[in-house]
Amino acid sequence: MTDDGTAHVEDDGTSPAEAEFLHRLHEARTERTRVNHVDLPRSEGEISLRHYSVLVRERGWRLTGMERTGDGGSRLWLERFDFATARHIAGPAFVEGPRLDELRGNEAALLEAERVKRDSGIGVLSESVLDGVHREHVRLRRRYVRLGRLASLPALVAFVTLMFSLVNRGEGNPEAADTLLLVSAVSAVVFALSLWPTIRAARARTAVVADYKAGYERVVAVALGTSNTGRS
Question: Are 123 and 130 contacting, i.e. CB atoms less than 8 angstroms apart?
């Protein structure tokens, strides 16, 4: 802390706590193991779990869990991307952070989960609720991918026929060029019309997880804040 009570920041824009965390993360990387853990540094300033998640993702790790240590601190469990299994790839995640059983072991997280349920009606720490949201997320994601692929077909046809139209016009065959140009225009219109269902599918996929994700992040933020307070 500086004399005026503000947190000291290093020349590169990182706080001492963040710099220490990145140093520990680098040491974990050198061990060349698939799963590793990093103890969060002691700090007066609070760094959110979302920011930790961004830091580790930028350096090739996925945040998979959090636990309390013996001295009342927090430990993040990480898995390296290059060791990712088909199980992780097949089931796209929409939240990153501690498992629900870990959060249920935190009293502050339980209290916040109750507040979330009163506010939104969503049982964030319920495995069945999470499974239901995840299934819907996967279903809508598949729909979005399918519609996106279908939309790409008329776009490809429009581009190819436009190129052939230009070639034919350059070779002195205007009739063929005009026909291909018409096909290209029709395909472009079909592509434009097919974008709307794709956009709606993307919005639906985001909306179906939005409430759960917001509630989960509230609970995790409280759990992480409790851990940081315990170490201060």
Answer: no
